[in-house]
Specification:
The protein has about 325 residues and is of the alpha/beta class. The protein is built from twelve helices and eleven strands. β1, α5 and β2 form a beta-alpha-beta unit. Keywords: Ubl conjugation pathway.
């Protein structure tokens, strides 16, 4: 009896709220205009709006609002993520970005095999997945959606041999971009596995300080279609690694070697000999670079648009001026 009365009271309050909302000026707008307004709102705000009235609930559930879902402003629990994926996402979802608890005081894990299975089921056409600051130690790599074209694992704990399954099965057949910024446990043996992803066009290994010349050899010999490579802050890479890049990655357009102290003129000369398509090159704080390497770059890389040599202390103003005159179409940055 009491439950029936409570139910009638809730229904009455909901009807009253609906009546109030229906006469609000914004509700007189056509549904397509309302959806355009809702596109500018974040996920949390959309979820709040869905509780306002029935009309707004149905508008918030529209698939066009859930194509690109960015959850990074909030570190959500595993339970909340599962509920959101189950209730909100659909086969229209193309991008999903999640942030974990690495670097916070919480010890919880918000990525699991069951969550990835739920994502694969609900989002069969997902193209981009971001798992930043996540603990991947209990999540096998083969659980990732096969439809992915871009995978971001920045600042996450990616354990040793996590990519080992690629040696037996290429479970990411369409992947074109892999970002492993600050995945400090990634080493040369992992790159031997990543080299099986022959569809890759962009690879970011920034701050993966265990990566050395042997790892560069693996990816250079196998990923010949790479157009962008970031190995900044990888201090173990030497001139030998640059030799592998210059010999095999002939389609490179972007190369970031920021703060790789082991690089000298010999490596740079070997590097640019075959990179005729290069458009962006960052050699900032490569302190062994002299005018010999600089002039070789401007002579060989005719398509180069940006060259960053900030912090290259062995270069004089006269050397830089001469390089700018010999390659007027290239912007040589020296901050």
């Amino acid at each position: 009896m009491a439950s029936c009365k409570a139910g009638r009271k809730r229904a009455s309050r909901q009807k009253a709220a609906d009546d109030v909302v229906q006469v609000a000026p914004i509700c007189k707008l056509p549904a397509n205009i309302m959806l355009q307004v809702f596109r500018f709102l974040d996920v949390k705000t959309l979820c709040v709006l869905s509780t306002v009235c029935r009309m707004w609930y149905h508008l918030v559930c529209d698939r066009c609002l859930w194509k690109h879902v960015d959850l990074r402003p909030w570190s959500l629990s595993l339970r909340t993520l599962k509920k959101l994926v189950r209730n909100r996402l659909s086969d229209s979802a193309l991008e999903l970005l999640i942030k974990g608890f690495i670097g916070t005081t919480k010890k919880s894990v918000n990525v699991s095999p069951s969550l990835l299975e739920e994502i694969k089921t609900k989002c069969p056409h997902l193209r981009s997945l971001g798992l930043s600051h996540c603990d991947m130690r209990n999540v096998p790599a083969h659980c990732l959606p096969r439809s992915l074209k871009s995978l971001y694992l920045g600042h996450s704990i990616v354990p040793l041999a996590w990519f080992e399954g690629l040696l037996s099965e290429v479970f990411l057949p369409n992947l074109k971009e892999l970002i492993l910024i600050y995945c400090t446990r990634v080493e040369n043996s992992d790159l031997a596995c990543i080299a099986k992803l022959t569809t890759l066009r962009s690879l970011n290994l920034s701050y993966c300080y265990r990566v050395g010349d042997d790892g560069i050899r693996h990816i250079a010999q196998s990923l010949v279609s790479l157009t962008a490579l970031d190995v900044s802050h990888c201090p173990v890479i030497t001139d030998l690694g640059l030799h592998y890049i210059g010999r095999h990655l002939l389609r490179l357009k972007l190369l970031n070697l920021f703060s790789n102290w082991g690089i000298t003129d010999a490596g740079v000369i070997s590097l640019v000999h075959g990179l005729v398509e290069l458009e962006f090159l960052n050699l900032s704080y490569c302190k062994e670079l002299t005018k010999l390497g600089l002039f070789e770059i401007t002579e060989k890389c005719k398509k180069l648009k940006v060259l960053d040599i900030t912090g290259c202390v062995a270069l004089s103003e006269r050397d830089i001026t001469k390089a700018r005159m010999s390659s007027p179409s290239c912007t040589i940055q020296q901050l």
